[in-house]
Amino acid sequence: MSDEKSSTGKVRFINPPNTLKIKVGTGGLNDATIKRSQSYINDVKVDFAPYAKQYLEELEKQSALLQKGAQNNAELKEKIIAPIMQLKAHGGMFKYQLLSDVADIALQFLEAINEINDDASNILNAHKNTMKIIVKNNLTGNGGSEGGKLIRELDKACKRYFLKHKKNSAIPKGR
Predict the structure, then answer these.
(1) What's the pTM value of the predicted model, to 2 decimals?
(2) Are 134 and 71 contained in the same domain?
(3) 79 pLDDT exceeds 70?
């Protein structure tokens, strides 16, 4: 947007064309389309477990490198984050909300630490083992009150880490 002064001294605003809006048009989706889409999401029978197992295998592979003392901790940290991010993003969509919640805590933890030391590795292993159990036992939904307790305990473990290792972390807000 530019502003120019016209010959009368007033500012004139010129809006550039919105080419995307021109191509796509305006307005939202009609109610029938939304209902049909929601119905499909609710009724689709996709077994997410095989995909989740693949992500967990990748996480296991990267964690094993960490246990062997891999040198490039920052690069390895990114490789560990990738499958966890996939589990978080897809878990809830395929009715594995507890899996998504555990992955979310693991992600926030990993993003808040500067390096993966032995204590961080132990916390990561707790999250990884929890996610494996969820997938192995096909625990869909949020886990009810037991799932809530599990989430709180994993969160508390992260908080204890942050208190002990203040120099190795940027404590996330709300934790």
Answers:
(1) 0.75
(2) yes
(3) yes
